[in-house]
Amino acid sequence: MTMKKWLSLTLIVALMFTIAACSGGKNEPAASNSPSASSEPPASSAESSPSATESASEQPAEDAPGWMADTSPITFDWYLNFAWFPNKWGVDPTSQYITKKTGVNLNLVVPAGNENEKLNAMIAANQLPDFITLGWWEEGVKKMVEGGLVESISDLADQYDPYFFKVADPAKLSWYAQPDGKTYVYPNASSSPMDFDKFGTQFTSNQTFVVRKDMYEAIGSPDMRTPEGFLNALKLAKEKFPEVNGQPLIPIGFHEFGDVGNYSFIDYQQDSSYLANFLALPREKEGKLYDRSTDPEFLKWLKVFRQANQDGLISKDVFVDKRAQMEEKIAQGRYFAMLYQRTDFAAQQNVLFAKDPNSVYIAVDGPANAQMDPPTLAGPAISGWTVTLISKNVKNKERAIKFLSYLISEEGQKDMYLGEKGVSYDTIDGKDQFKPEVLDLLNKDRSAFDKQYGSSHTFWMLMDTNMQLQWQPPSVEPFKQLEDWTKGKTTSFSQYDLINPPATSKEGINATKIANDWGKVLPKLLLSKSDADFDQIFNEFIEKRDKTGFAELQAYRQTKYEENVKKLAEFMK
């Protein structure tokens, strides 16, 4: 998830409204800007040196945006822990406008390969760039904070920019406060319980079960909520459409299989489960965390997928394909059905829509529990999708916190979302909104839009998905149906975030072992030859899990969960 792994992801940002889909440790981003060609950002004509760091500005004022006191050129290095992120700052009018306005240029750094390896190497060498953005669930956050490698943004604000506290959300600062009372991160796409009450009717989820529209209708639009109906639909699709443009049909697709499982089924690292949400399985019972991975309904449906594999309805590709390969196959329309985040294939959906509107993917009712309860899909959560930190290596502390304040302010959000007036938006019918030709490109080709305009939060590192509602245009097809299907099915899972132990603790070490064991076991379960083999493999996993300290791990999580419930109750007062 996804992001997670997000964002995308990511439309993307308009669709990314549900990132937290990421709620629950999504290791796919909730929104991904589709890859687009771009060039390196221009170097600034002058950069502030550490000696010029704490500029000679006067005592900062609480009510005035601090960034306006110094708009001299400076370039910050900003690391995004998402190898798929394709865009460069300074290529598009929006980022150029913001640099001209604030003086801040960004050198966006993205890992070429494994994100965690890159981040861990930078942490080990204490060579962190000025800003760092990564998923809130990632262990790197704790390593940087507990290792003393990042600045307290609350301290920086106290010292250099009190205006920060005027524009920052107190609930988010409190949610991420460390035992020392300081806050070191700020989230994007974050919604507090009060936000959920205020905007809940507009909230959508990123979690969908989708089918290719033309194929689904050609086989009679069958009910896929039951095991029998689900398997029969896959069989009918394969029989009627054995090939797609000369390539074999893939009856069912999922997220990537990784070291700790698969977000479409369950990610043991975070106890997040896409499938369990579709089955409306509770995450707690009578105040106690509930192990959904052992729920009879969950196991029943895992066996449905095992049967699908035995019947030749699961392609071997799904076990090895990475996101790039999956996106290529989605754009070709080769999947019949997918248990997949809708914003993660937004660019590919546009490709299909341009070729044939009937070939797009639509959301339908998918796997359900025996009572046919509606799904409880992950909606926005207070943890958000990603968090941003300021390194202690930062070139200029004062400019850094003031730029962060600008980005999270309504002014910064409007600039990031709408761009420059007269270029990407104008006041039309009394409302600030995208120009017609800009909106048309946004709806038709997100990748081209990012490159040509760079607005609509192409650079989503600190986007506020609640604030952007005032400028967000109505959804259009082929995305509207996917969004609308999730409305009324969203749930806030905020209380289950941030409950995992530190990786270096005894419980944390055991949690990693259990998660890695699950990553190996899940494919074996789906590839098992019979239900009896499935039961044996699963029981052996549970036995090993129990010996690896699962009870102690759950006790730790229970304590943190109860603390979260109390903290969230305070936010609601």
UniProtKB/TrEMBL annotation:
Lipoprotein as UniProt keyword: yes
UniProt cross-references to Pfam families, sorted A to Z: SBP_bac_1 (PF01547)
SUPFAM superfamilies associated with the record: Periplasmic binding protein-like II (SSF53850)
Segment forming the signal sequence: 1-20
Keywords: Cell membrane, Lipoprotein, Membrane, Palmitate, Signal
Disordered, as annotated region: 27-67
Low complexity bias spans: 28-59
Top-level division of the source organism's lineage: Bacteria
InterPro entries per record: Bact_solute-bd_prot1, SBP
Matches recorded under PROSITE patterns: PROKAR_LIPOPROTEIN
Stated name of the protein: Extracellular solute-binding protein
Species: Cohnella herbarum
